[in-house]
Write a structure and sequence with these properties.
The N and C termini lie far apart (55 Å). Helix 9 runs antiparallel to helix 10. The chain is globular. It has a three-stranded mixed sheet with strand order 2-1-3. It is built from eleven helices and three strands. It is an all-alpha fold.
Length: 321
């Protein structure tokens, strides 16, 4: 967890502006964000509940899906309640400690999210290319170890962000021109040379995202090669459809995240409102889409939901009678 030290060189709080240049539209934008957040929370909690209750879903694919749902809940809940408070109630102030905690959770669980997507791609690769060996390769203990490594990687690599920031003096400017505390936005408020911080940020971004994207890309190339060799056209079409939906989820995370990351460092000509909207999309759209893509489109989960509804309906009829 972040090392939080509060000295005289640290401000008591920061001011989050929300979405500058769209003040007249903030209520409507907040309503849209609220709907997306509710969908994300309900969808991911439903996924976790179904996987927990249905023993037939205690397989690698669904265990990784449960990890993704848990990561989505943390990632979206670390920013959305405060963002809605800013847009609806003009609660722009955020405490110093709360800001650093937000930095930690955003970046740590974005790393976890990326790692889980990589693990799911590897799971699909083994399931499609080595179907007979899949149960022996990806056992429950292996899945737990992979999840532990992914979580540990995120926590260990991101903790130094907060540790370094907490030991540096801030300028008098306390204004962060977006709706949540993000590492690069907070760095811009420091009154010292931040090249080490920026360099470490680049190292973490490229080592985590670069490695994960490489593994995901290789996995899906091998999957597509195996799919093209299937004799049945129907089987090829079905597998292509599954891969396409998974790739859409992956792109929904990486494209806005990379755009936000690169804009902070090199995109000084990008309009501020565009940058901030992409920064919000990157933390809200994937948690909303993941339960829809991975849950609604997965037959076993749909069947489990329908069995639950049917069971509830039967119990109500018995109670009434």
């Amino acid at each position: 967890m972040c090392t939080l030290r509060n000295t005289s060189s640290h401000p008591v709080s920061f001011i989050l502006l929300g979405i500058p240049d769209l003040e007249n539209s903030q209520f409507g934008i907040a309503f849209l964000f609220c709907v997306m957040y509710v969908v994300a929370v309900v969808g991911n909690i439903t996924i976790l509940h179904i996987i927990r209750m249905d023993s037939t879903l205690h397989e690698p694919m669904y265990l990784f899906l449960a990890m993704l749902a848990a990561s989505d809940l943390v990632l979206s809940s670390s920013t959305q309640p405060k963002m809605l408070a800013i847009l609806w109630f003009h609660a722009h102030e955020i405490g110093y400690h709360a800001c650093l905690i937000q930095v930690f959770f955003i970046h740590a669980f974005a790393s976890v999210e990326s790692g889980v997507l990589m693990a799911m791609a590897l799971d699909r690769y083994v399931a499609i290319c080595f179907p007979l060996r899949h149960p022996s390769i990806l056992t429950t203990s292996v899945v737990v170890k992979v999840g532990t490594v992914v979580l540990g990687r995120g926590l260990l690599l991101v903790s130094p962000f907060c540790f370094m920031i907490s030991r540096m003096p801030f300028c008098t400017n306390r204004v962060i021109p977006q709706s949540y505390c993000e590492h690069m936005a907070v760095l811009k408020l420091l009154c010292v040379d931040t090249r080490v911080n920026r360099g470490y940020g680049l190292f973490v971004a490229f080592s985590v995202v670069g490695f994960d994207i490489l593994v995901i890309s290789v996995s899906y190339v091998m999957i597509l090669r195996a799919v093209l060799q299937l004799p049945s056209g129907e089987a090829r079409f079905k597998t292509f459809g599954t891969c396409a939906s998974h790739i859409c989820v992956i792109l929904a995370l990486y494209i806005p995240a990379l755009f936000t990351f690169l804009t902070h460092r090199f995109g000084h000509q990008v309009p501020r409102v565009v940058h901030i909207m992409f920064a919000n999309v990157y933390l809200l759209v994937p948690p909303m889409l993941n339960p829809i893509i991975y849950g609604v489109r997965t037959k076993q989960i749909r069947d489990s939901v329908m069995r639950g509804y049917c069971l509830q309906g039967t119990q109500k009829l018995v109670t009434v009678s």
